[in-house]
Amino acid sequence: MQQSVFDHMQQMGHEQLVFCHDPHSGLNAIIAIHDTTLGPALGGTRLWNYASHEDAIIDALRLSRGMTYKAAISDLNLGGGKAVIIGDAATIKSEALWRRYGKFVNSLNGKYITAEDVNTSARDMEYISLETDFVTGVPEYMGGSGDPSPFTAYGVFMGMKAAAKKAFGTDDLSGKKVTVQGVGHVGQYLVGHLIEEGAKVTITDINAARVKETAEKFHGVEVIDGKDLFDREMDIYAPCALGATVNTQAINSMKCPVIAGAANNQLADENIHGPMLIEKGIIYVPDFLINAGGLINVAAELDGYNRERVMGNVEKIYGRTSEILALSDKEKLHTQAAAMRIAEKRLRDIANVKARL
Ligand SMILES: NC(=O)c1ccc[n+]([C@@H]2O[C@H](COP(=O)([O-])OP(=O)(O)OC[C@H]3O[C@@H](n4cnc5c(N)ncnc54)[C@H](O)[C@@H]3O)[C@@H](O)[C@H]2O)c1
């Protein structure tokens, strides 16, 4: 890492970074708290076999910052946080690891509230909940809301339709060629919505079992390997795997008029790739706006869960996407910057409210 951790925290505006280590269970975790202006920092715990500790720190910092924007733009009274656990998901999981991690979360006294993320499940949240109340996304049989992925997928579908309306003059996706990269929890539900609407869906995933499962579940889905993905003609690219797939090389090859997907941190560098997409005439729906459905769902656990209300709030992603795309046009801003502007204004407004008696 060329810059120090504190340099990164200062540049990205973080409040706190917590390192958690337990040799007995093999736990090495980093909890990143970005901003608690709006409320406690809520964000999932990602389990990933990072190439280096530096990569893990940067991921935690970037993801937690995204959560601040996601909560702010979704009108939630929550701050931004995220945690990463370093390790191989196939071998590291144990009751002891989750419970020890739960104790670390508890030690923050509610400043950070955890949830699921890549490689963590409602079952894992159940173990964490044995040691702390500051956990959401616990299974339904424990009074929680369960897997947030269907809500995330529905929100992505809404944002995609709003972008389609702008790009194609209609939000009807029937006949539109949509490529879904990553058919995990969110990707599979998204494919379901798209097939139901009559879209022509192509899928790609590095996990052969997931591809097989999806292709068997949804007839008519075309399967491709990920090679030369962006050389292919498509109407909509839906990144639903990991981040940074929208980079210089990809944009140079891309032929799709719309990017709308669930992955966090889709732009490798928002300052470079946001403007590049505008120049190329590609409509990009900002990730923290379009993938907020899961957060909206788990946040509802905190103040009394009601599924219908949650679905209504997730549906608002359509209108919000249209607003951001209009602001981007009007102010000649790239869409990520337009969405950030709205989120930052809410952060400033509420900070001012909270500073007064
Ligand atoms: N689950 C949620 O509710 C939620 C909410 C907000 C954002 N997200 C984001 O959406 C993305 C997907 O989340 P998920 O819960 O479905 O995760 P997941 O782990 O269930 O699925 C991700 C899928 O992507 C595949 N994948 C990984 N690298 C790939 C590559 N290079 N090419 C093709 N496929 C690849 C994996 O094999 C897996 O099937 C993540 O970036 C996550 O952070 C998820």
Automatic annotation (TrEMBL):
Domain Glutamate/phenylalanine/leucine/valine/L-tryptophan dehydrogenase C-terminal: from-to ranges: 146-355
Organism listed in the record: Taibaiella soli
Keyword Methyltransferase recorded: no
Biological process (GO), any one: amino acid metabolic process
Protein name according to UniProt: Leucine dehydrogenase
Signal peptide start-end: none
Catalytic site: K82
Lineage: Bacteria, Pseudomonadati, Bacteroidota, Chitinophagia, Chitinophagales
Keyword Oxidoreductase: yes
Keywords: NAD, Nucleotide-binding, Oxidoreductase
Pfam families hit by this protein: ELFV_dehydrog (PF00208), ELFV_dehydrog_N (PF02812)
